[in-house]
Amino acid sequence: MNKNELNVLWTNGDPITSEHFLLLYTINAQKRGWFDQVNIIVWGSPAKLIIENKRIQELVKEAMAIGVNVSGCLHCAQELGVDKELEAMGIKLEYKGIPLTELIKGDHKLITI
C-alpha cells in the first residue's frame, strides 16, 4: 500500500453526511491530489443507500470516474439484497474482515464515517 493513500470506512447511512462530508471530501481529496489514492470501503447501510438514493449513486459514480477506488463488504451487500446492483456499478465486493484488520494493524491512514 502507498503511504500517501487514504482509506475511508463508510458505515454511516445518513444521506446528508454521506453527500456533504464523505463523498464531498473523498472526491476533492482525489481530484485535488491531497492523496495519491483514495479508497472508500462501503460497509453496512451505505450499500443500500447507494442503490436507493440517486444523488448518492451519482456521486459514487463521479468518485469512481476520477479514480477513487470504491469497494464493499460482500456479506453486507448480500444481506441487504444489493450485491448485484453494486457489482453492476463496478463496485468490487469481497469479505472485508481480514482486509480491514490489516489496515487497522498496519501503518495506513484510515478514517471511519
UniProtKB/TrEMBL annotation:
Gene3D superfamilies: DsrEFH-like. SUPFAM superfamilies: DsrEFH-like (SSF75169). InterPro entries: DsrEFH-like. It comes from the Bacteria. This is DsrE family protein. It comes from Mariniplasma anaerobium.
